[in-house]
Amino acid sequence: MDKGIRETVKRYIDSVARHQSGLISAFIFGSYARNMQRSESDIDVALVIDDLADNERFDTQVRLMLLAAQIDTRIEPHPISKKDLDSNNPFAVEIRKTGIKLKVK
After folding, report:
1. Residue 1: what pLDDT?
2. pLDDT over 70 percentage in the chain
3. Whole-angstrom Cα distance, residue 84 to residue 73?
4. Residues 6+ positions from 95 with CB-CB distance below 8 Å
5. Sign for the pseudo-dihedral over CA of 96, 102, 103, 104
6. CA–CA distance, 70 with 92 (Å, rounded to integer)
7. What is the band of 51 on the pLDDT scale with cuts at 50, 70, 90?
8. Cβ atoms of 99 and 29 closer than 8 Å
9. Residue 53 CA neighbour count, 13 Å, CB half
């Protein structure tokens, strides 16, 4: 993966950590993690948030998208609870299988 993309996503994760409580970990997944991105590809970032309740998911998604727009409009945030990440949900399996884990402050 391009070092510039990793740095951009790291700046985003640092911003999320300042504005979103309960951030446990983050992963780049999808086409960028597989080095199969194209010019129109978004940068999929899974944000693992402790105790993310279903009724908070939409508001959290909106906040994360607004933060992403301040860093790079290609960033597509995907909030997920720790419980959901540990499940056999195909989305969670994809993140665990192909995701590149990034350090969270």
Report:
1. 73
2. 100
3. 26
4. 27, 29, 46, 78, 80, 85
5. negative
6. 27
7. confident
8. yes
9. 3
Q: How many domains does the chain have?
A: 1
User: Which token pair is 55?
Assistant: 């009724």
Average pLDDT, the chain: 95
CATH number for 12: 3.30.460.10
Single out the residue of 79, 82, 98 nearest to residue 37, CA to CA: 98
Contact 35, 8 (CB under 8 A): no
Domain encompassing residue 16: 3-34+41-102
pLDDT greater than 90 at residue 29: yes
